[in-house]
Amino acid sequence: MRSLLVICILIGLAAVAAPKLVASYLHQPTTANVVSETASAEEEGQAAPPSGARQVEIKAAGDGHFYVNAEINSGHGIRLMVDTGASVVALRASDAAAAGIRPLKSDFSEPVQTANGTTMAAEATIDRISVEDIEIHHVRALVLSDDQLSLSLLGASFLKGLQRYQVADGRMLFEN
User: Fold this and answer.
1) Fold of the domain built from segment(s) 51-175
2) pTM
């Protein structure tokens, strides 16, 4: 009898507390909403970038990815896909060669995992990458053979050189 009384009390407490918990949960903004609200506030001029900061806005392509035309080293333009999951900039060998980066066959000694499986890459340092008005120097990169990478990738070794980057509402914002 005593255990039945305890169970009834617990059920009563849960019945009283549950609506408050559900209501508070439903009224908490999600992270996505916070990012969207921040982006909307910036669009409305409520939060201007710091004085002298440069911004580049990239709209998502039809496939949902973000693509940029970047100048690498000598000013050669290369189309890259922004890949926040890639730890470094990954260049196709042909794009690297066009930018003056020509590793030797013996330099392809770094094992990397790609969508096509494990392959070997060559480490390199890019002197300069410019995306519109934003320029980052001394960027770590990997060079892969063209058959292992369908498009060069702008990875975290570039992104970490920015003051910030943000993704919201089908747009990516670089700021420096």
Assistant:
1) Cathepsin D, subunit A; domain 1 (2.40.70)
2) 0.70
